[in-house]
Design a protein that fits this description.
Resolv_RecU, globular, crossover junction DNA endonuclease activity, DNA recombination, 11 strands, hydrolase, metal-binding, six-stranded mixed sheet, 206 residues
Length: 206
Amino acid sequence: MAINYPNGKIYTPQKNNSEKRAKKDYTFSNRGKTLEDEINETNDFYMQRGTAVIHKKPVPIQVVKVEYPSRSAAVIKEAYYRTASTTDFNGVWQGIHVDFEAKETKNKTSFPLKNIHAHQIDHMRMVTEQKGLTFLIVRFSSLNRYFVLPYRPLQDAWDDMCKGGRKSIPFEFFEQHAFELVPGAYPPIDYLRGVTKMLSEESVKQ
């Protein structure tokens, strides 16, 4: 199915073959799963225990072409995003609005900033200005390592790129400025534990 952005540009999804990923020997807890799968399972875990209510945001699309191969089936062949996407997930945790983007990369040495869009950075800035909690979860799939990167360091890296600096965030930057997550069985990624550490460190700095 062809999906286009509001400006007419054709959306080209990142090549992220789940079947190939399933062949990689990750830990028992996340073998064959995408980062989105793991976060969705974690969110279910949080909600069942009353810890937080966080969901994947639905993406509104405008369908423009549908084919009917049979009377009981309809296949969408072309559609447009009605609006530019913001971030992947949002919800409430302990009275705090939580809003974050989740990305994974096969790159072992850096995270390409082309995986983030300017309107997403703007959205995260506005959420922060409203006292919401926003961050980036990154999975380095080839290394099986996960990080919660706070908004501020992400914004600094983005601003540096806009000024002509490097177009990626070095892996060492994550080790220095992000909070590493240890994958498990259930929940697959207890990212709120990393967020708790992030908030604790920020309160010490203030």
